[in-house]
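Blackboard transcription, Thursday session:
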Amino acid sequence: MRRLLALTAALTLATADQTAQAQAQDGLAWDSVVAAARGQTVYWHAWGGDPRINAFIASVGQDLQARHGVTLEHVRLADTADAVTRVIAERQAGRDSGGAVDAIWINGANFAAMKDQGLLFGPFTQALPNWPLVDTTANPAILVDFTQPVEGYGSPWAMFQMVYEHDTAVLPEPPRSIDALRAWIADNPGRFTYPQPPDFLGTSFLKQVLHGVLDDPSMLMRPAEDADYDAVTAPLWTFLDEITPNLWRQGRAYPANEPALGQLLADGEVDIAFSFNPGRASAAIAAGELPDTVRTFVFDDGTLANASFLAIPYNAANREGALVLANLILDPAIQARAQDPAILGFQTVLGLDRLSDADRARFRALDLGIATLAPDAMGMGLDEPHPSWMTRIAEDWVARYGTAP
Amino acid sequence: MARLGLLAALTVLGLPVLAGLAGVIGPAFGYLPALGGQAFSLEPWRGLLAWPGLAGAVRLSVVTGFLATLIALGLTFLIVAAWQGRPGFAWLTRVLAPMLALPHAAAAFGLAFLIAPSGWIARGLSPWATGWDRPPDLLIVNDPLGLALVAGLVVKEVPFLLLMTLAALPQTDSHRSLLVAQSLGYGRTVGWLKVVAPRVYAQIRLPVYAVLAYAMSVVDVAVILGPTRPPTLAVQILDWTTDPDLSLRFQAAAGSVLQLGLVVAALGVWRAGEGLVGGLWTRWATRGARGVVADPALRRLATGAAGAVGLAVGLGLAGLFLWSVAGLWRFPAAWPEVLTLRTWAGEVVALGPVTGQTALIALGATVAALVLAVAALQARPDPGRWVLALIYLPLVVPQIAFVPGLASLALVLGLDGTAVSVALAHLVFVLPYVVLVLAEPWRAWDHRAGLAAAALGARPARVLWAVRLPMLFRALLAAVAVGFATSVAQYLPTLLIGAGRVGTITTEAVALASSSNRRLIGVWAVVQMALPLAMFALCLLLPALLFRNRQGMRTG
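(Written on the board underneath:)
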């Protein structure tokens, strides 16, 4: 009970005016969160399909233990929705406290579903002592996730932007726009594919195409129900009808997800792959999984960008520990570690101008890696459309291409 | 006391299945209060029928299920018919037995890497024989007809049916029947098929049903090798179950009920087919063709089949191991450019505790199953039809149809998320296999030893502990090995009852499967396979060690 009171105090204060006095009390209240967290074990449900991410999470766990006496258990998920299912099942069974999921790595449709259903704890982000270091101006996706206001229910920990990958030894000059890609696929049958929707990256590619073929992409920011859906998406289906016969396996099979697509590039089965992590190619080269002739590129008119969040279910058993974890991941030293391409290559959510000189130096010292684009070469980050577009496009894709004729 | 054991065993088998089924029937008709489903409706069924891939998914599940079962059964009979009683047969069974311990997912990964256009076979032949510098654009794995899926199921089910057949042979008087057939001029293989096969089939009917039900509803193998547009029904149900759009849970429950109906209908069709094939078989057998000429060809075919199954699994696993220590390995190199322990080093911290937990859960479930099985067999050494059917219930009802409901029940009772509850859930699947392995040796035990002990004044309990169990020690250990392997391989029960807090090697391995990272999959598949194999080895060595000075307890 005492723990809960301290927590409520911290959160109430955080959302109140940030006067000096309030900040002092804020610090006090945060101290009690930290004190309550000590000895807890936090179960962080996060996708477990990448050894580098798993190793990074393990290293965060060591810091969490050393600094705060909190144990971190990484529950490796095959699919983030498994954790959502879990929380739903618990509410179904009436377990409104003591839940098994303490923290989830989440964004997009999963986040929207949990927030809509009232399955998330919060708002909590402004109570985190490291929150002022986060740059929400340069990274608007932190406040609005897929057009859904985050409203403090998710703490950001990495920025992502879609980049394309190609092996310069095979393909020196890649196509840099949707139209150029269309022509290239026609000339190079069987050398391009995308993960099968409703996979996240595959559907993102469809949205990227839609962006490229629309005169006015701003209508994607409103729910799909408010637009003339059929008319808006017609050019997308025309595009897909045209390229499908020339896709890898003639479009009769698709890779399952981002790592499966990356494996096709590594095996030389395709010439162009893509990823939401701009540092993936460099990290894979460093790990010996891709040849060092692979480079990344972006489309001239921009690529989709979004943020990854840490959210806390409403019934989390170790809420304080999860809050301490959310704050720790925003620590400049740990953010710099995540951005190191030898470790992860994730883009930081922090604003370098908000850091101390010593912390800024950590980021400056990073070698971005052989295949990673410099920040000024990343081009424009496009806003993610409203989640309803993703859902409807994925459904339509399944009806049109996802069931054998 | 023993009667109580039988009752307990049957409860362990039947109750969870029925409770779990009840847990999906409600949502299938719109009732799930936590998601706002307060009233009964047919909406989930409308959603299911509106899914454009339904016809394709159902057709796939049925066709791959029947094909895999027919081929596996055919190959099994062919191998035994051609090889029983010949030198090499014992060796063959000794090689195949450990394959039973191999988790399906590991075998499927191995096979996928072997036959893919960028796989080991293509690499071995490129570029010198094929001229391929880049992998050919061929659809082999995930083919629309599901042939790769059928192949993956066959290589895993042949060892299972083979071992079941071996257990059934002693009750079929096969040696003498075969001798008579041969003396009447029948070829060895054709003679076996005509005279022994019908009797063996009657004995292994239930295992065959289990194979059919499993092949139709399997999730992990179908995800790895099966088609994707659409996938099989079971895979689609799991997709719906894990979709962020929560309303799809109702549709998933309706799909589960449909899956159950499909399996029941398929079993009915199979049962009807038994009568038809039986009649044709009798006519074939009584027509009198001796089949001597066909004998060498059939034997070569059987050898080829056994070799192909063994090679598919063996080379697949070797490939997985090689990936786990591979650095850069580009097509068409047949061998990695760099060998490194980097992947292993990265995983070793995570491997230790999970391996320990997996072994503990498997031991707990196996020991409990062994106690229940002995008690049940002691009460009814010759189980009737209904008892036998109940034993097979958890193997025949698709996991995807009742495990989610069971998990909800465990949650309501507050029993989820502990190692004990996961071990209990595993017990439901371990017990049938333990009973299967133990039943035949138990019945075949020479009762005269018990009579002699009783005549010397031993009470029934003493006969059991001091005579029967020690004499059956080898069979008990075989049951332990199979039960242990079954527990290690469980995916869905561990995932759902374990609540993410209790993970085993298998849940970790399947989670990593989503990474398509062959190096990582290699590491976990090797460990997933090594643990049950270590148990198998232990169970083989222990009797040799314990009975080294007991002449009568040695084999061969």
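Lecturer's comment: Residues 1-26+342-556 of chain B form a domain with the MetI-like fold fold (CATH 1.10.3720.10).
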